[in-house]
Design goal:
The complex is a heterodimer of chains A (288) and B (116). In chain A, 66% of the residues lie in helices and 9% in strands. Chain A has 288 residues and is α/β, with parallel strands linked by helices. Chain A folds into 2 domains: 2-161, Globin-like (Orthogonal Bundle); 169-279, Transcription Regulator spoIIAA (2-Layer Sandwich), CATH 3.30.750.24. Chain A is elongated, with a radius of gyration of 32 Å. Chain A starts with a helix and ends in a 9-residue tail after the last helix. Chain B has a single domain (6-110), classed as STAS domain (Transcription Regulator spoIIAA, 2-Layer Sandwich). In chain B, 34% of the residues lie in helices and 24% in strands. Chain B is globular and about 35 Å long. The N and C termini of chain B lie far apart (28 Å). The chains are: A alpha/beta (288), B alpha/beta (116).
Chain lengths: 288, 116
Amino acid sequence: MRNAMSKTRRTLLEQTKLQIGRMSALIEARARDVFGANQMMSADEISDFSVEFLELMVALFKTDDPLAHHTAEFKALQGFFGNVAKQILLRGGQMTDFLRYAQFLQKIFIEALEGDESIDGDGVRAILLLLSNVFNELSLVVFESYLEEKERTIYAQQEELRETATPITEIWDGVLTLPIIGTLDSSRTMLIMEALLNRIAADRARAVVMDVTGVRAIDSQVSHHLIQMVRAVQLMGTDAILTGIRPEIARALTNLNIDLGNVTTRASLSDGLKEAFRRMEIHVSTPH
Amino acid sequence: MLQDASAPGFHLTPIGHGQILLEPSPSLDVGDPGNLVVAILDRLQGLRAATLFYDLAGLALIDEAYCRWLEGLANACRAIGVRMVCVRMQPTAAFGLAQTQPRMPAFATALDVGLD
């Protein structure tokens, strides 16, 4: 078994060394077709990729067991492949293109053995098995890179959504406004609360006007979240003023037995701001 | 001359106009509030305090036991004519407390000393 592996990797090593120039040219030519045309890789990058890839494959064939995933040589090859895949994906390349390219690279090694008549049936089987194992692993690396990249994109989009979902504005020194639009579920309430409390601490806000004009419907859970938010603001020592409660929402709150006794409410955002200014002894006058 | 206003677990600093700042230390044991309350009230009376600012800046989280301790101290202060205001509550502590407490705790809060 050990001898068979030794023979397999020796054959691959010899043929790769013998035909490295031809293989490199083929790898570069295909890379230019796949990645060069749409600027995914520059000519220099393609050349570097080809050289480094073949060097790493040679280093792998020199190890006792090229299929052992824990060796430095195998990890170096995986790392190299992963980095190139990420680079291509970041530049807008398709995962499928890169996977097809990986299949092509495997084919190059198989074609390199065509003229070698010393390889018998068992040898061919062993070589194909080794190559397919190595390239399957490399395909997995590409797939992982793709997933990582997608996750990074999704996370960035979530961050953007989070920022737009909590448009907290310091409308006056120490006065924050937070218009709440849409539905308040548990996770959104957590996000808004976290952002609002941190903003209160950072801006040393004395009053927060929370406007719920854009909240179309309210149920027991939503009202509970709203009260929690008001309570958290008050615990920070900041005045919370709730504005824009529509009649149907007010009726729903009453039906749900929600006690707004400790909450300052005003009809509109404008009234809420006036109340905040009054409490902070800020006088806003209009010129006559 | 200022009295020694420190005791194990807290430090009291007069900041003028009958206002006292209480800074709890990590060694404050709220599990035995009885003696602690008496010690604090004793010093507050000695300092002729009108307002006690309890500094929460060092507490990232306030659990139920700590909340009960604050409420108990605020009630005891009220009994001797001192108003207790908790200041500098951390966002994380407010976040947690708002979710675990079904009502506003029985102590006043302010962003900072002088902003009550």
